[in-house]
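[Automated response] Your request has been received and processed.

Submitted sequence:
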Amino acid sequence: MNNLEQKNNTPPLLSRNFLIIGWVVVIGLLTLVAGRWEERQINPNQQLVSQVSAEGKSEVVLQRNRYGHYVTSGLINGQEVTLLLDTGATYVSVPENMAEGLGLRKMARSQSSTANGVVDTYLTRIEYLSIGDLEFYDIAASINPGMNHDTSILLGMSVLKNIEFTQRGDQLTLRLAP
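Generated structure:
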């Protein structure tokens, strides 16, 4: 067999490389799309739009996620965070591994009763927290070492006590309480 016949029987290297690169790009794009779709299932409120009510109050409308929870994007001390509304939490509860990056310092040791029992926590203060145009200052919070696997911050009653809620279907409207 001569060299010419051998070349014709071998798939062109360039075509094979383009095929491999094409499949890598397709798989990468599918992974990216699937990841964003999953994020939207967990937090359908990533792009909040504030509106003004008939009474002239600023309000934010949240869509319930597929698990039945209200999860939203917000800001703590200027940093973007994911918040899970939790009327059973006394304070805003921040995972310990996120606290330093949010500018929170551990103050007094404390304990909190959770669904998993009593846990050691640290009290702290959040200078600024916002959900859309709803803004809150000097908020009582806790730093929870037991939440380090969580990617959401529990938005507890130390903020929620300042909000009026109206739920209709899968939507929860938040506005500042008078």
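Summary generated for your ticket: The chain is about 25% helix and 40% strand. Residues 3-42 form one domain.
If you did not submit this request, please reply to this message.
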